[in-house]
Amino acid sequence: MKRLILPTIVSALLLTGCSSTQQSQIVKDISNSTIDAVFGGSSSSTDNAVTDTRSTQKTSFYITEATVHSPDFGRVSVSKAKNPKGLTEVKIGKSIHLDSGGELNAKMYLYPITNEGYIVDKPVTFHRMSALAVVNSGRYYVKAEAYAGNKFAATGYVDIERGVTNKVNLSFE
After folding, report:
1. Residues 76, 93: Cα–Cα separation, whole Å
2. Which helix (H) or strand (E) holds 30?
3. Taxonomically, which superkingdom (predicted)?
4. Mean of the pLDDT values across residues 23-33?
């Protein structure tokens, strides 16, 4: 009977919408729990398989270079607030460490993106958290860094909206 359980589960998974990674993880978990049930084991196993898409090699990162990183580092988002002047303003909003949630002081370079999709080599720079700049609306590529014993980075595209204060929120990794 036990020999029929595993093939039945595998067949059911193949018919559903699970990806192969999810299927192999489910099968592994079921196999481990079945073995533990049969042998009465109560120890837990640790899977050391690398599931992240990051490379183990060091990647050079300079916020002063007008380059796009793929995949991006950290997370970048924009929150908007009305301003009485009606100007298109940008400033650094929240700046946190992605893993711990702790606040970090950041430097940010905002590179304009042309209508053709090219990155412009003349960034708008923010060297202090309190810095505020008036910019044109449109698409920008953000490169930011923070130091807290180690160098942390955040990159990504943002769309700057016209006539409001755009707060660029940074989550560093």
Report:
1. 10
2. helix 20-39
3. Bacteria
4. 61
SS3 53: coil
Cis before 7 (ω within 30): no
Task: Return the pLDDT at 49.
Answer: 47
Residues of the chain with CATH 2.60.40: 75-172
pTM: 0.67
**How many CB atoms neighbour CB 148 within 10 A?**
13
CA distance linking residue 173 with residue 162, whole number of Å: 29
Residue 52's nearest CA partner among 71, 67, 30 is 71
Closest-CA residue to 132 (of 168, 99, 163, 95) = 168
Mean pLDDT along residues 87-111: 96
Does the 75-172 domain belong in CATH 1.10.3470?
Answer: no
Beta strands in 10-99 (DSSP E): 75-82, 89-97
Q: Which tokens in the block code for residue 47?
A: 């899977």
Q: Which two tokens stand for residue 68?
A: 């796009």
* Tokens 């960034």, residue located: 123
Ramachandran assignment for 86, one of left (phi > 0), alpha (psi -120 to 50 degrees), beta (any other): left
